[in-house]
């Protein structure tokens, strides 16, 4: 969509556009938004010095007809754009972000799109997706898959590339930044996982529960590097093993969401599991018949019961005084990298490239770059990801004197 782009002034002049590869993140939307533009460099999270108060220019942005309104005045355009520049900050709806902002009228409201260098973007993503206190190699692996995720979505033909919530990739701006995750972003600058000359689909979950799932079993889409395989490194997570009891009413509600009509439920169990141990068929028996849920519906039903993962077993009997017992392991869909597995591998001394090579077998490491003047990304310098290092030999100890 072609639209007139205006520049919001900061002080005496406008900021020039950055030359690096930028990403556009939808960070807020609503009937009106407050936008603040401090004229200062972003704080250094490694510094112990308190930042001095900085004067701000503030606008209340709303929509009026086809155009935006600034502080109640017609801006004369459906879009307003403050390009990113080194050290620039913008605060939208109380949250501070690096870079600039694109404001656009959309369906009677306002969208605020943070425009910033992809590496600065990752500084607000990695600590939002993985605990900053985890080993450096695990944080580096998370940085690479986060960069890969967003690089695959950069598309100048669309109003924005990604959003800031769990629907896309969690992004919390400057407030989330930590020294450890900043270091992980710098250490992996430009690195992405590639397959067939394109960014790979670097799905990840919290905990595989000891066995990763294939993309085919979870979503019906077979990608050769998203496979089911034993994952003994995912240990120690809070959802490594779990158990819950689900009332008959809750089970019936979940079944109704999948249009199961078998009368009063009497028995619910997993009757077929995938190679990774996840539900592929659930059989529901009631007073009026039998129904089966298959594939993604089977896993979705198990998750609808409140299970953290579809890698679970169901006790079978269910009734007014008999809750359905669900027991399982892991958290999330289980496809691709397991975050607790990455932590386990890092604790064993594996670097981030070997972690990525394990969870995305057959992929390569590539370098992300921009195509000047287009806003598009390209990949270069492809090389295979390495295999895991063999375990370190156990140290021999003397038994003399025992």
TrEMBL record:
Keywords: Signal. It comes from the Bacteria. One of its GO terms (cellular component) is outer membrane-bounded periplasmic space. Residues 107-194 form the Sporulation stage II protein D amidase enhancer LytB N-terminal domain. It comes from Deinococcus metallilatus. The lineage of its organism: Bacteria, Thermotogati, Deinococcota, Deinococci, Deinococcales. This is SpoIID/LytB domain-containing protein. Pfam families: SpoIID. Residues 1-17 form the signal peptide. GO terms for biological process: sporulation resulting in formation of a cellular spore.
